[in-house]
Amino acid sequence: MKTYFLTFLWVFLLGILAISETQATHLRAGEITTRRISSTSLTYEVTMTTYHDEIGGRTASDQQDPSYFCFGIGNAVAVPRRSRTIINRATTANTYVATFTYPGPGTYRITCTITNRNENVRNIPSSIQTSFQLQTTIVVNAALGLNSTPVLLNPPLDSARIGQKWCHNPAAFDADGDSLAYRLYVPSGRIADEQGNCTLRNVAGYSDPTLIGVNRINEAGTGPATLTVNAITGDVCWDAPAEQGQYNIAFIVEEWRDGVKIGEIIRDMQIIVTPSTNRRPAIVVPPDLCIEAGTLIQQAITATDPDNNRLELSAYGGPFNVGPDGTTPINIISPEYATFAPKTAQNSPATGTFRWQTSCAHVRAEPYDVVFRVIDLPRTAGQTQLATLESFRIKIYAPQPQNLTARPAADAAGRAILLNWAAYSCAAQLPDNTRMAIYRKIGCEDTPFDPCSDPGQLEANGYVRVDTVGINQTSYTDNNNNQGLQRGVQYSYRIIVLLPRPNNGQSVISQQVCVNLPQQVPLITHVTVDSTFDTRGVITVRWTRPPGINPNDGTGPFQYRLFRATGLTGTDFTQIAAINTTLQSTVADTVFIDRGINTVANAYRYRIEFYYTDPGTGQLQRLDATDNASSVRLTATPGVRRVQLTWQANVPWSNDNKQHRVYRSKTGPNGPFNLVAVVPVTTANTYAYLDQGADTFAGDGVQPVMMSVDSSYCYRVETVGQYAAPLTTILLNNFSQGVCASPIDTTRPCPPQLAVDTLNCSTLTPTSFCNQTTFANNLTWQNPTTGDCDRNVVKYRIYYSPCEGQDLVLIDSVSAPQLTYRHQNLTSFAGCYEVRAVSRSGRESAASNRVCKDNCPYLMMPNVFTPNGDGRNDIFQPAQCPRFIESAELTVVNRWGVKVYQSSDLSLQWNGKNNQGKDVPGGVYLYQVTVKYKRLNCAAPAEIVKGWVELLRESGAN
């Protein structure tokens, strides 16, 4: 993307700006960068760079020493100026460097406050009284290593012209290879701020510069003026200024690693806008490059000027290894460094040459950004100098590993592959912890890979990373993490160099090498379901004889041992058969019929171990084992007038890129079946077929059906597979179990009509439910005889809540045609009920009518009691049986209103003693019972029952 810059004519600036040197700092821009300088402590070097106006504010620039840093912990620290570098005759860069050790990990904000900004900043009210504040945020963590923030290599020195698009790019470079992102930010500062203030605040009253002026339109005249930043490239553009003057903007450079933000820098800068009639120059740069390390880059950069002004070319970026002044080395990359010449003024057209001899030390994941700039030198005095900037990116990858070979290896299991490759050409120039990664996949398709594409191409094409080894290693034995590789399978291998941080680059992916493991043990070829039953299911298992074994070599007799596990991925293998063999082809010893298993509920997985006879001991010895192979598992999911079939198998051969067969029956899961479809299958994710009743295979007769909700349809699937190796190119056909399903209708069952047995409180006696602790409600319901609904009801679901107004929850279900339910073991009758019908297809009806039932509470207290210990009427307590009391409190007072007794016991008993255990005198007492009943309205308040009771004692009782 091309961006344009304008360089201000400083003589003209002096004529339009009147700025007090005694009050203003004349800061044009600035930022703070950091780098960790110790591997044993959390010590950082912190550098602030500020750009000063040397024409209008040299005195203020002279006096800016020291500056005060806040490190995010503790008080501000005075930091003396380390250097003052002349950028050009109008600008200097002041640097302030401090060292600080953090006490522990964390996120810290480093700030610096400089007292005054320039006077007359158009978009900052009272700018001369407002401070200039910078901040950089870093994540301090030892795990990040000697991390540094990015450095900004392009100084912010260009000015803008009215009506013309202005752009700036900081030419940020991160030596650690971290990713960078950019966003706009409101400048920071406060009125009357003192140096040393550590609190960052946005400028009060700050205005977007695009809102200032009358004709606020973009350069093309197609819309309003804009201020934007490209989040990826960092191009900050104002399209376009409407009025002359000075303006301040700010933006943030974010630093990201592995998806986590680990820091950010604020650059605050000033833009000087002037009128001008000069036309800007044009510059042509090469297209973006993606090259192999060691390539010499030599590119011509050309520029022309429409007014035939003289031109001056310059360049910025990480490959030059110099700071913003264009001369000071900063040690951010390894030599050789890039060069650009000449930088002197030339007649138009002007030409410069970018030259960079790359090496393996320059390999990195992030591209290098190089910014080229051309500025014109107007022949007419008083004209603003115009500049154009354009950048291009250079991606450098490491050379391809060479001479990869593969052959079977003799490990303990005999199922390994030995890889060898040539010593890597760049090993000496790469970090010691650079790794060579080994990738493997089944199959040998020769896929082309682009070294300039994003990482992850190997994984996207089916390769898995086996391991990584040191960059100086030249061999590797792959035994699948000690599990052994599959025999009879063709493998493809590739290797690639992976660089560590800070570069994180990689090499070209090697050429593939393909290899087959010799087949010395059997291969399972069939695990097919013959019949589907829960207790007498049958699966037939077949396998090949081991082709690499000579039956006459003196190691016989031999033995196959068959093991079985439950499930597609089961690991609970148990031996189910041992078959002795001499490996003679006339004997049918490579088949086993597994009977008496539950093929309705389970898939099964099989493994065969092959044993030979040790000539020395005469004992059977295990040679090897086949890879595990499962039966095909079919699932049928009912749909609306359709059945969705999906199937899967966990086998060592591939069932992909074949035509699988779907069979249907209306008789049962064991047929007879009719072939209704041949399904092309590309990957395991497409093992599926949607049956809507069609029969697309005419070979055995066409038998389409109308998918009915009243019918059950049964299916089995025949998969077709093949091993990858040429030795076993036979097609492998295996059947799934049979499975049945019924389509569903679009309608639901009708909601039932519910009734609950009633409770008539007026007919109850004081002894009703006396001493009863559990209760039951009887529910009955009927199905409506009319209405457009599904009549195939298979069960009813009962929903209940003990309180009205609450959501009902499912408590039970009963199978149709039962139309009653007894809800037992309740603590009271109170509760609400609904019933919902469920169809054979699993659809639930709307709720029935809601029926609620309440309790009949009862409480009666007596008027007299005689606590004389004779066992009769000694206790004041409820008469007969109180009903459905949830909580209660009894309070007794004498006739003068003095409380003598209080208790929250549900029994509501009083023995004539006060709460201290002493007898109270005989006489009349008043009582109050505060009682909360168990009611349908669970939120009902407690009720108050009041009365009097006479306590009778013998004369002299206390």
Notes on the protein architecture:
There is one protein chain. The protein has 958 residues and is an all-beta fold. It has seven domains: 2-274, no CATH class; 282-321 and 329-397, Immunoglobulins (Immunoglobulin-like, Sandwich), CATH 2.60.40; 405-516, Immunoglobulins (Immunoglobulin-like, Sandwich), CATH 2.60.40; 524-629, Immunoglobulins (Immunoglobulin-like, Sandwich), CATH 2.60.40; 633-741, Sandwich (Immunoglobulin-like), CATH 2.60.40; 753-853, Immunoglobulins (Immunoglobulin-like); 864-951, Sandwich (Immunoglobulin-like), CATH 2.60.40. Strands 2, 3, 4, 5, 6, 7, 8, 9, 11, 14, 17 and 18 form a twelve-stranded mixed sheet that branches. InterPro entries: FN3_dom, FN3_sf, Ig-like_fold, T9SS_type_B.
Q: What are its keywords?
A:
Immunoglobulin-like; flat; 43% strand; six-stranded mixed β-sheet; T9SS_type_B; mainly beta; Gliding motility-associated C-terminal domain-containing protein; 958 residues; FN3_sf
List the helices and strands and how they pair.
Elements: E1 2-7, H1 10-16, E2 27-36, E3 43-53, H2 58-63, E4 67-70, E5 77-79, E6 81-88, E7 91-101, E8 106-114, E9 132-140, E10 151-152, E11 160-161, E12 166-168, E13 172-173, E14 179-185, E15 226-229, E16 236-239, E17 245-257, E18 260-274, E19 282-284, E20 289-292, E21 296-304, E22 310-317, E23 339-341, E24 345-346, E25 350-357, E26 368-377, E27 385-397, E28 405-409, E29 416-420, E30 435-442, H3 457-460, E31 464-470, E32 475-478, E33 490-498, E34 513-516, E35 524-531, E36 537-543, E37 558-566, E38 574-581, E39 591-597, E40 604-613, E41 620-625, E42 629-630, E43 633-639, E44 642-648, E45 658-665, E46 674-681, E47 688-691, E48 713-721, E49 732-735, E50 739-741, E51 753-756, E52 775-782, E53 793-801, E54 809-815, E55 820-826, E56 831-839, E57 851-853, E58 864-865, E59 885-893, E60 899-903, E61 923-933, E62 943-951
Parallel strand pairs: 11-18, 20-27, 58-62
Antiparallel strand pairs: 1-27, 2-3, 2-18, 3-7, 4-5, 4-8, 6-7, 8-9, 9-18, 10-13, 12-16, 14-17, 15-16, 17-18, 19-21, 21-25, 22-24, 22-26, 23-25, 26-27, 28-29, 29-32, 30-31, 30-33, 33-34, 35-36, 36-39, 37-38, 37-40, 40-41, 40-42, 43-44, 44-47, 45-46, 45-48, 48-49, 48-50, 51-52, 52-55, 53-54, ...
